[in-house]
């Protein structure tokens, strides 16, 4: 059974940093792309970033490019999202998701709150 458990969220000030982690289990971690997705309050889901099986292949939405860095540690079955230069509109529930092999995702965690506030 696929399990994805996010950690590391919380409160940050504008310009600050947070690092999210997602511990994965129940599948062959290094065989799938991994994603971060977010849902701002009152809005729909927004794709944030993806790291392919090859850790050097990373992708970002325009809204976070240059500020966020996704990475994965296949030995630890963990994917990370380093968030720098946080902005007020980065406030959201952040979800870790498992790729399905077809440029989409098929499982996700319970999510973790990130709040950026003065």
What does this structure look like?
The protein is an all-beta fold. 0% of the residues lie in helices and 51% in strands. The chain contains no helices and 11 strands. It has strands at 3-7, 10-12, 18-25, 34-39, 46-51, 58-60, 68-73, 78-83, 92-99, 105-108, 112-116. Strands 2, 4, 5, 6, 9, 10 and 11 form a 7-stranded mixed sheet that branches. Strands 1-3-8-7 form a 4-stranded antiparallel sheet, with no helix packed on it. A hairpin with a 6-residue loop joins strand 5 and strand 6. It is globular and about 40 Å long. The protein starts with a strand and ends with a strand.
- Output mean pLDDT: 95
Order of helices and strands: EEEEEEEEEEE
Distance between the termini: 40 Å
Strand content: over 45%
Instruction: Indicate the overall shape.
Output: globular
Largest β-sheet summary: 7 strands, mixed
């Amino acid at each position: 059974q696929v399990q994805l458990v996010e950690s590391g969220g919380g409160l940050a000030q504008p310009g600050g940093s947070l690092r999210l982690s997602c511990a994965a289990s129940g599948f062959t971690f290094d065989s799938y792309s991994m994603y971060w997705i977010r849902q701002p309050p009152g809005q729909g889901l927004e794709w944030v970033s993806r790291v392919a099986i090859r850790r050097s292949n990373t992708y970002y939405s325009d809204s976070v490019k240059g500020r966020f860095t996704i990475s994965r540690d296949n030995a630890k079955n963990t994917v990370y999202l380093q968030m720098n230069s946080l902005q007020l509109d980065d406030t959201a529930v952040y979800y870790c998701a498992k790729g399905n092999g077809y440029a989409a995702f098929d499982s996700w965690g319970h999510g973790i709150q990130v709040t950026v506030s003065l």
